[in-house]
Design brief:
By secondary structure, the protein is mostly helical. It folds into 3 domains: 31-186, Helix Hairpins (Orthogonal Bundle); 199-321, Helix Hairpins; 330-349 and 356-377. 70% of the residues lie in helices and 0% in strands. The chain is built from 12 helices and no strands. Helix 3 (29-85) packs across helix 5 and helix 8 runs antiparallel to helix 10. The chain starts with a helix and ends in a 20-residue tail after the last helix.
Amino acid sequence: MCKDVKNVSWETETLMGTPPKSKWGSFEPRAALSHVGLFVALMLYTGGGGLVFRALEYPAEMAKQEFHRERLVTERWNLIRFVSERSNATDNDDVEKLLSDHLAVYERVLEEASSSGLALEVENNFPPLEEKWSILQAVFFSSTVLTTIGYGNIVPETFWGRLFCIAYALIGIPLTLTVIADLGRVFATVVSIIAKQLPAMPKCCTRVSDANPTGQRSLYAFGAVGFLFLYLSAGAGLFKMWEDDWTFYDGFYFCFITMTTIGFGDIVPKRPKYMLICTVYILIGLALTSTIIELVRRQYAQSWQQLRALSGPLADTLRRLGDAGRGVDVSALHSDLRKVLTVVTMPRLSSANGSALTDKRRLEWEAAVEAVIRDITAPAPTQKPPIVQIVIYESSV
């Protein structure tokens, strides 16, 4: 008996005078800790992966830059020595050809040094432009691996780095998808609770939404897409402040390409101190994007189901029309279909206060429906086949 009392519904509690518990009152700390624990586990996995990537790739990066630096210095001095030694030569044709060859070698070495990340500054002994595998850059790279974005501006080049990347992605991508799905459910629950706490809509809007639930769902889907664009715009504003050479459009383009996991890599943040914030922004944005895409997908699926439900009777009617041949009255069929669509799409009648139908209105509605049904089900008048009269005249000519 007591067990049944514990399972009493909120409607019964309301009738007994006990107010129902709100969604905010049913907050469970253990459930919240599980959500937070998943997110923290992903953050720790991302940070640990970044440290491993740095340990594997940073020494190789330094060795590569040192090799290109020494080669660049050597070829530069070779070019200078050749010019100084051949400055007084009499055979100009040979000098020009040899100088062109030395210059081509030096230009190729310059290009390779620049692509390896060295700044072409002779006075500073060709320092690196940026540290590719710094701690923050490595953590940001690990986040792009887990989210399958993959900008391509930083990639592992050593054997062990690539091997670790494969194993790291095999374990981390399912974990990331789980966290993104969990965050999406949390966001959907929060939005649902907030929507229930909002004041009621005006009566005119309520009547329209009750009469057309499909339009109401479409409105929710468009609202979710609008919220996604607001989130992208907020990120674009932040990146415009962080990156000196970015415009608002550049930031919005980067956020959109990132949240949809396209990841061209043509525009990538360059400020290392903002990489952690950028990583958190991307993870939250991916959860929002997946939730909103799911809402839009459901709307498409419902529209497709409604289209199939409508096309089924129409296809069956057209098939019977083709089987029956000329004995079917097409104009009557067209009129019947118009009547059916009128009844289906007619908004439900409601009283002035938006509650249930009055008895008089209900009777009128039922009578109208019965009349339309009788009119449709009534047998169509049979048409007599046309009579063709042939007159033959006989002549003696």
